[in-house]
Structure formats: structure tokens, C-alpha cells
Amino acid sequence: MGSDYHAVYEGWKSDPEGYWSQAAEAIDWFKPSEKVFDPDQGSYGRWFAGATTNTCHNCLDRHVEGGRADQAALIYDSPITGSKRTYSYGELLAEVKALAAVLEDNGVEKGDRVIIYMPMIAEAAMAMLACARLGAVHSVVFGGFAGHELATRIDDAKPKLIIAASCGIEPNRIVPYKPMLDEAISEAAHKPEKCLILQRSQHPVDLTEGRDVDLGAAMEAARTQARDVPCTPVAATDPLYILYTSGTTGQPKGVVRDNGGHMVALNWSMNAIYGIEPGEVFWAASDVGWVVGHSYIVYAPLLHGNTTIVFEGKPVGTPDAGTFWRVISEHNVAALFTAPTAFRAIKKEDPQGALIGDYDLSGFRTLFLAGERADPDTIEWAREKLGVPVIDHWWQTETGWTIAGNPVGLGILPVKLGSPTVAMPGYDIQVLDDEGHPLERGELGNIVVKLPMPPGCLPTLWNAEKRFQDAYLAEFPGYYKTADAGYMDDEGYLFIMARTDDIINVAGHRLSTGAMEEAIAYHPDVAECAVIGIADDLKGQIPAGFLVLNSGVDRSEEEIEREVVKLVREQIGPVAAFKLALTVQRLPKTRSGKILRGTMQKIADGESWKMPATIDDPAILDEIGEVLSTRGIMRA
Ligand code: COA
Ligand code: AMP
């Protein structure tokens, strides 16, 4: 059967406002928009200007009123703690009302920021929805970040309060959150008024008097009183959340998401892109701390009347490489969305896919991969072992949903391995050279999106409009810069090759090498350093830090390297996966002093490389190569 994609894409292109206005009919608005798109608001215009709505209403109340009260809304499945619980739409609404009542009792009002620092438990999703209900702006911080990263976000978002759990749980350890929370609050200049702490039985903590509230007990009281907290109307253009993502420095970028456009785009995507009907089970095996978790664990499936899964576990080791298949068969999952690294981990543990045979996967239709480049080996393996289409799609925290993909609901297009397929309606993707001239098909260049961005994409950065303009809009006037490089072939298929900035992608997690360099610079014995991402079979990339020590330092290099590894873990967090610190005599630089990170990476990865014409001293590259090969890191 042919795909409707081309006709739909052309339909969008000829009338973008008509296209999104029709998609907006699926959403409840308290007041309709005055303009579907207002080009005069914001940096590049705003979607659904003048409308009022509420995202929590559209995720929960609307479905309860519309007959889904008894349908499962959220399944919490936690192999790591051995617990499971299903919440119907009616039950989830009651929980969210209880949590919203606690927020209200603690002074949260429309527009206030609330930081959520929680592991993959149902309460994390409830906290997000409760903020949305009150028109408060949540900012979820991933549990694998350390206290310092949390402090940076506290100072930027200036939350009225923080919602946290007492701990997270990793396969080999309990991760106590309270010490990190306390450390972050003491480091930050801004002090939240209250912390709502969810006590987990695996690791209950002493609460700080006058500051901490026992969230579980407070919710129980609100539940007993059946507190009814109505949805606060917000403007479609008001912020729903801020999600911090890595930039080129240690100061993360606060990506702002609005209410109206976000709902329209996500709700539309569930059928058009993921091919899912309301009532079906959709599972994004990610974390609520990342954009995939925001969009496809919490908001999109609930907006669309689906059942979502909050999975607290790993693809391997909880308890084995069959966990994903167990969850799919047990909950009748129609589509799974995860990062390729999860599949590489499964493939490593169970290369034959033997565990797949233990489960009934007959209801499973499609596997979606994103977050990093999907390598052809992984795609082929998954396709062969699971017998379903494997769809790569490309997007970013900034966009919140797919820029280029293969739209299952519109009709799957032929897959080309290595390509996330084609531009989705809403995105006019072009490839430009560094001067901003369009390139021929097949030529490698800067991937940009012609403005305006579609509904759901970031309108700005939190309190940093100038940074937004500088980072995304200034370099190619009239276009949004994705900071990914790649090319488009004759049939419009896009190929994403590399980032054009200092971002690396470790196990599907976006990390800034600049932030790691800033952390390393704190070490008193380090004169200068460079962090690059080098190829890794499991995680895609891992960071490697090259250290130049101060002259006169006579301590052992191994000891300093160990301290540097510890420092990055303490400053950024275990998620940085920074385990490789290498002492070198000098760093290779251009004559103007720019460190040649790209060339270092090519040497480490065993790729072909050219001697940069502007290099100061070519001998330094040999020294780097020598250190890499002595340490057994350089690829053949
Ligand atoms: N809280 C605390 N620590 C965390 C954490 C969290 N939420 N998530 C990860 N960490 C820790 C890990 O325990 C590990 O610590 P260690 O150095 O003590 O072993 C470290 O951070 C690195 O984690 P990770 O890179 O995830 O490696 P891993 O070896 O634990 O697991 C995978 C490897 C492939 C199984 C895992 O990365 C994975 O499931 N990836 C899927 C990626 C994903 O969901 N991406 C989201 C975008 S779709
Ligand atoms: P994040 O903002 O964490 O979602 O990371 C976004 C970045 O991850 C993109 O800019 C890409 O560099 C990379 N990325 C995400 N999905 C893909 C994909 N399907 N193929 C290649 N790179 C991807």
C-alpha cells in the first residue's frame, strides 16, 4: 500500500495554518485562538495565540469525561523493586488532584516554577501533571545528575519548591537523593521555600524541619478529603515546562515548551508518526528526565488516550536481557520507543535473541529508535529478531517531537539504513554550507529548518532570549540551526552525520564536553584539558579527557587521573560516564590557540584525518596518538 506522506506533506506546505488548525480540533480549548499563527509574537511567531487551555485537562479530565475513566492510563512496572501498579484514567486524575492540592497548600500558583527530581516512579508523572493543572512550570532534573547540576538549574529556574524522592535505585546501588538535594540548595543562590519529599521504603530519610514536607502523607490527607483542584486556564503560549539540555558550556540551556502548540503536535504525532490508536499501549523506555520521557512517557500518550508505561529498570540486568519482551507481552505494548544503545546492550547479552522466544509478542507492531544515530547493525538485528518494522527518527530536546522520521500512520516509506527518513509535516529541512548557501543533494552541510518552527518547538530559552537568538537563529538568518550536520539524498531522505558543536551523545544521553572541561579545570594540578567523545560499541560515544598538568607537579599521573574522574562524577554526575582521563604533555592547537578536538577524535577512532593547515606543532598529534595506543584506546 502506498504512503500518504507526500500528499500530506505537500498539503501542510501549501497551508501550514490550515493544517495545524485542523489538528488543533482534537484538543479542548477554553477559548479558541485568535490567530492560528501570529508572526508578530516571539522570535519567529507563536502558535495558537490568544487561546486558553490546560494541558492536564486534556491529558486526564477530558478522557475521564469522555468515557475512559476505567481504562488504564499509566502502568508503573519496576523490575528493580519488584513492584507494579496500574492507574486508570480516573485513578490517575484523583492522584494528580491530590498532588496538586499539596502544591496549592504549599503556595504554588500559576507561573511559579517547580523542580522535579525523581526517579522513574508514577509520582514523577503525577508531579508533572499536577504542575500543569495549576499552570505552574515544571522543570524535571534527571536523577543521574549530581548536586552541582541541580544547583545550576535551581539558580536558573528559581523554583518556589522542589519535589523529590528520597532515592533512586540503580542495579548495583541505592542513589540517595537527599544529600544531593541538600548540597544543591546550599550551593545555589536561590533558595526554594519548600521541598516535598516522597519517602521510598528502600531508603527513607530524615526530613529537614521547616523545609521538607512528607509528600506521601500530604497526598494521603488530600485524598481522604477528596480535594477537588480545578484546572487553571493558561494561555496556549504560556510555558508548560522548562527542560535543561546541554549547551556548549557548563550553563545548560533551559528549553521552554508552551501548552497549546505542544498538545497539538504531540497528539497529532501519536497517530501520524507512531501509528497508534487511542486505547492502545505505548511504551517509551526512556526517563522522565529527558525530552523523550516528557513527550512520550507522559504527555503524548495521555493526550491521545493511550496507556503509557513508567518502567523503572534497565534493558539488561533487571533481571536479564528479556525484560523488554516481558513488559511488551505482559502489557500488550503496541509500539516501543527507545534509544539504539538499549538494543546494543540487549544484543550484547543475548546475541541470538533467545529470550525473545519466551514471550508472546503478537500484539507488538513497531519499534522506534531515537536519541542517537541508529547504527545499521542494530536496526538489522532488531528487525530480524523481532520481525517488526524498526523506525529510526531524528529529533532534539528543542523540537520536542520528530523533525525527520518515517510516519507509520501516514504509511511507512521504504527504509534506507542509516537514514531517519524524511522531513515531517511542519519542518522544511534544508542543508546549507557555512556561508548559508543551499547545498546540492548529497552534499554534507549544516542541517537547518526554515522558520517558523512548527507547533511544539521551543519559542525561546528560559530567561535567555538573546542566547536563544545567538544559539539557534543568528548564524543562518531565517532558519533554525539544528547543530547537526548531514545531507539529504535525491529522494529527500536525510542522513545525520555529526554534531557541529561540542555536544556528545553517550548511551543516548546528550552531554556537553565543555561542561566536563569546566569541571576538570577545578582540579588544582590541571593546567588545561580537552574532552572529546570517542567511539564506543555499546554507548555510541564515551568521553575521554586529555589533561596537561601544571609544571612542577610531581604526584603520580594515575592518582591525578583518578581524582579527575571522581571530580567529573561529583560535579556532573554518573550519567557523564567519564572514566577515561589521560595525561599528555601538550594539546594540539591551531596557531590562534584553538584546540584541535576534531582531529584528536579522528585519531582516537582510527578514522582518516588530514593535518590541519593551521596547526601550530604537528608533532603533538603524534604524541596524542602514542598516548592513545599505549593506553590501548586507539582503534585500528
Ligand atoms: N540515577 C542515578 N544514576 C544513574 C541514572 C539515574 N537515573 N541513570 C544512569 N545512572 C548511572 C549508572 O548507574 C552508571 O553508573 P556507574 O558509572 O556507577 O555504573 C552511569 O550513570 C552511566 O549510566 P549509563 O550510561 O546509562 O550506563 P549503564 O552502563 O548503567 O547502562 C545502558 C547502559 C545502555 C543499559 C543504558 O544507558 C540505557 O538503558 N540506555 C538507554 C538510554 C535512554 O533511555 N536514553 C534516553 C533517550 S531515548
Ligand atoms: P537530545 O536533545 O538529547 O534529544 O539530543 C538531540 C541530538 O541527538 C540531536 O541533535 C542529534 O545529534 C542526536 N540524535 C537524536 N536522534 C538521532 C537520530 N535518530 N539519528 C542521529 N542522531 C540523533
Automatic annotation (TrEMBL):
Belongs to the ATP-dependent AMP-binding enzyme family. Residues 67-451 form the AMP-dependent synthetase/ligase domain. The lineage of its organism: Bacteria, Pseudomonadati, Pseudomonadota, Alphaproteobacteria, Hyphomicrobiales. This is Propionyl-CoA synthetase. Keywords: Metal-binding. It comes from the Bacteria. Residues 516-594 form the AMP-binding enzyme C-terminal domain. InterPro entries: ACAS_N (IPR032387), AMP-bd_C (IPR025110), AMP-bd_C_sf (IPR045851), AMP-binding_CS (IPR020845), AMP-dep_synth/lig_dom (IPR000873), ANL_N_sf (IPR042099). It comes from Hoeflea poritis. CDD domains: PrpE. Residues 5-59 form the Acetyl-coenzyme A synthetase N-terminal domain.
